[in-house]
């Protein structure tokens, strides 16, 4: 009871940013937790082909959404919240009409060419209608959510996010069980529930005094966002092209198996996204105030945290896979370390990319992403037919490493000879931790055949983390308490 009181007291005395950071991470963990709870259920009530159809549909949606939303709610949005500090509501209200218009235009094109799309993808008109609905409404949820994160307003965001996740899981399981067309039913439940929420938030974002069309807002957003489109497309292809290509080369069943392993391995995204969600606004404020040393110190602490968590989840990867899916999926366990390490390199390159976007040096961002994505597609084309679908995990890792290296180069070029700005990150430290994580990944694959050695390694890691918890948590608290 004493410990609980102490924790409650610390929480009550914590700053708004500290509380927001905590809840953003907890919320995202619960959201992903709902997905992990759903995985062992869906993989047992659906065939691998049916689950593969669902996974590939989401991959296509994520790709098309880049063009209908221009991904304005990503990096460009945080910059807009500073640029239009006194006009934030007007900006959001106006810009969602831009993406609504783009959504309708793309949906019109999809409906016109629905027969060709069906022939190429296997998704009939009913799937395409769901796709259009999702593309039109989805950006409103993102604008509203990003504003809450930027302002550290966590209560409403937590409520909406958890309502969406819990309803999607409960109704998804019920409808899928009783339905004959299980892949369509699961997609329909996911899209319809989220569309209700998006519609409500569209009106929450809408402000009567704000112009529907604003040349200033629309023009600036497109100038900032359009050069980043190749980056976002390339980034998405890095994460989803493997599943699409596996589906074409090896079939939907293999794509379904790979997707399960990918989702398990991407558990690190829970931590990374939660940290980045709170870190990005703080970073932009700190860059604006030229607090470079603070950024260097705190990013180093976060890197240590990411490093240890990546090793931890690689070590317990086989157990998570057995829990999430039937034994028939276990053949893909050797892909877990590669995708986990790839997620660590996403964290590294995102650190660099945030600063590039702040400096409005977006051309390098696009170039790096295009090269990495094309490399990934080429390597997949060569190695998937030769070594099987698991080769995609390693080709994707190579591409993420390449992406991190290129972002490092472009960031150094953007900084130039500004000695103070070069203190933003400890580049040597990032290089050493990146090298070590690759070496450990190779060792952990070997340990998968020796459970006792893996258990000993896991206990050692936990002890090291426990002994250093105070230092890491203190630095993290310091980071979150500053605005």
From TrEMBL:
What residue ranges carry the coiled-coil annotation? none
Task: Provide the topology term for how it sits in the membrane.
Answer: Multi-pass membrane protein
Look up the domain of life of the source: Bacteria
Cite the entry's keywords alphabetically: Cell membrane, Membrane, Transmembrane, Transmembrane helix
Q: Where in the cell is it found?
A: Cell membrane
Transmembrane segments annotated in the record for this chain: 21-42, 54-73, 94-113, 125-145, 157-178, 184-204, 216-233, 260-285, 297-317, 329-352, 364-383, 389-411, 423-446, 452-468
- Quote the InterPro entries the UniProt record gives: Poly_Biosynth_Transport (IPR050833), Polysacc_synth (IPR002797)
Q: What is one cellular component GO term in this UniProt entry?
A: plasma membrane
Full protein name: Membrane protein involved in the export of O-antigen and teichoic acid
């Amino acid at each position: 009871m004493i410990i609980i009181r102490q924790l409650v007291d610390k929480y009550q005395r914590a700053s708004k940013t500290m509380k927001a950071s905590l809840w953003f991470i907890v919320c995202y963990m619960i959201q992903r937790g709902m997905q992990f709870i759903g995985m062992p259920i869906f993989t047992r009530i659906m065939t691998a082909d049916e689950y593969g159809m669902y996974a590939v549909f989401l991959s296509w949606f994520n790709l098309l959404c880049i063009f209908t939303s221009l991904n304005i709610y990503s990096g460009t949005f945080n910059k807009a919240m500073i640029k239009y500090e006194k006009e934030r509501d007007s900006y959001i209200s106006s810009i969602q009409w831009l993406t609504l218009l783009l959504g309708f235009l793309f949906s019109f094109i999809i409906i016109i060419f629905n027969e060709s799309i069906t022939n190429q993808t296997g998704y009939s008109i009913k799937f395409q209608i769901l796709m259009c609905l999702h593309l039109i409404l989805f950006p409103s949820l993102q604008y509203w959510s990003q504003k809450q994160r930027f302002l550290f307003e966590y209560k409403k965001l937590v409520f909406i996010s958890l309502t969406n996740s819990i309803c999607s899981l409960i109704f998804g399981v019920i409808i899928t069980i009783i339905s004959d067309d299980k892949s369509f039913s699961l997609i329909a439940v996911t899209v319809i529930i989220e569309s209700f929420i998006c519609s409500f938030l569209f009106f929450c974002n809408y402000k009567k005094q704000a112009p529907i069309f604003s040349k200033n807002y629309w023009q600036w957003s497109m100038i900032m966002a359009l050069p980043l489109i190749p980056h976002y497309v390339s980034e998405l292809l890095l994460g989803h092209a493997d599943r699409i290509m596996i589906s074409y080369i090896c079939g939907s069943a293999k794509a379904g198996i790979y997707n399960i392993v990918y989702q398990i391995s991407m558990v690190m995204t829970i931590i990374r996204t939660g940290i980045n969600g709170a870190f990005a606004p703080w970073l932009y404020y700190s860059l604006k105030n030229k607090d470079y040393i603070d950024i260097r110190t705190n990013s180093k602490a976060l890197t240590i945290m990411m490093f240890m968590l990546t090793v931890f989840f690689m070590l317990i990867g086989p157990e998570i896979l057995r829990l999430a899916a039937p034994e028939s999926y276990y053949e893909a366990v050797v892909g877990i370390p590669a995708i986990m390490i790839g997620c660590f390199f996403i964290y590294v390159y995102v650190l660099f990319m945030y600063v590039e976007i702040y400096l409005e040096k977006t051309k390098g961002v696009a170039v790096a992403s295009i090269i990495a994505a094309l490399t990934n597609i080429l390597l997949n084309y060569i190695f998937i037919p030769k070594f099987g679908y698991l080769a995609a995990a390693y080709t994707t890792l190579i591409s993420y490493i390449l992406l991190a290296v290129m972002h490092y180069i472009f960031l150094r070029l953007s900084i130039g000879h500004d000695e103070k700005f070069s203190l933003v990150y400890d580049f040597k430290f990032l290089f050493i931790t990146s090298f070590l994580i690759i070496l450990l990944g190779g060792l952990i694959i070997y340990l998968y055949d020796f459970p006792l050695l893996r258990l000993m390694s896991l206990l050692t890691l936990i002890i090291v983390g426990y002994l250093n918890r105070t230092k890491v948590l203190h630095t993290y608290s310091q980071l979150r308490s500053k605005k």
